[in-house]
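Hi F.,

I've been meaning to write this up properly since the lab meeting, where we talked about keeping a consistent format for the predictions we share between groups. The idea is simple: the sequence comes first, exactly as it goes in, then the structure tokens exactly as they come out, then a line or two of notes. No screenshots and no reformatting. I'm using this chain as the first example so we have something concrete to point to.
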Amino acid sequence: MSIIDKKQMTEEDIKLNFITPAILEKGWQDKITMETKVKFTDGKVNLRGNLVSREAPKKADYILYLSKNNPLAVVEAKDNNHGVSFGMQQAKLYAQMLDVPFAYSSNGDAFQEYDFITGIEREIGLDDFPSPEELLARYQNEINNGKGYIVEVFL
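Output, unedited:
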């Protein structure tokens, strides 16, 4: 039970109390980076006459990895005053930029999942977040039109 109402929590509170525990419970402990650790763009450069400025770098709330330098999913968090899928557009954009097959959004009530391989978007419960093994198995089974990896042997 939280000390304040979920609707009064900030995005950081939601991440701390709901999203991070749901992800870690599924075994992502050594396979996760959070917003403060990894920026994946330097930020757009803007030119106005002789003035040059740079926008803030893009940083996903969570990036989930199979192994070092091998990202598999992006998770975007929002506060609970937004719907579960409110951050999905941002998650999809970041997933495309990172070339990862899975994007998630959450407001602490559930996760919205988008699978780039199948094109399926669905809502899943906090307890139903996939483990690294489950997500890897899905990826391997879904690629190549559901045929998985095809290994050609040349003799």
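Notes:
The chain has one domain: 6-142.
The domain at 6-142 is CATH 3.90.1570.30 (tt1808, chain A).

If this format works for you, I'll send the rest the same way.

G.
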